[in-house]
Amino acid sequence: MQSFVGASERPTLTPYQGSKRVFGFFRCECGKTWQSGNSWANQYQQCKSCTEKVYPYEQRALEKPNPDDKVDKDKPHLQHLCGKCKTLGRLCTKRFY
User: Fold this and answer.
1) Is the distance from CB of 97 to CB of 63 less than 8 angstroms?
2) pLDDT of res. 2
3) Pairwise CA distance, residues 75 & 9, whole Å
4) Angle at 14 between CA 12 and CA 16, to 5 degrees
5) Which ranges carry the 3CxxC-type domain (predicted)?
6) End-to-end CA gap in the chain
7) What contacts 58, CB < 8 A, 6 or more positions away?
8) What's the pLDDT tens digit per position in 20-39?
9) Quick one: three-class SS letters along the chain?
């Protein structure tokens, strides 16, 4: 008899387990840290410094930015470092750069 891994038995690699995009906080073993508004459940981002796959240690719901926040809307999403983009074979956000 074959057994199948159900959705509830899949590995949990991130704090958030929903289906929407969230804000993630990343910390690589090489010491580099970053934050991203393109964070997903059980998806990594590769470190720009060492290319290690890093999963977020904290994730929060996306919120509209505070006017005092420094947000660079022109900063491109680095698809070649994004696990979700690689899984989808395309940009993981609805925004196109």
Assistant:
1) no
2) 44
3) 36
4) 100
5) 21-88
6) 48
7) 15, 24, 25
8) 999 999 999 999 999 999 99
9) CCCCCCHHHCCCCCCCCCCCCEEEEEECCCCCEEEEEEECCCCCEECCCCCCEECCCEEECCCCCCCCCCCCCCCCCCHHHEHHHHHHCCCCCCCCC
Q: Which tokens in the block code for residue 24? A: 């993630």
- pLDDT tens digit sequence for 49-95: 999 999 999 999 998 877 777 777 788 889 999 999 999 999 998 75
This prediction has a pTM of: 0.80
Q: Can you read off the two tokens belonging to residue 34?
A: 């970053």
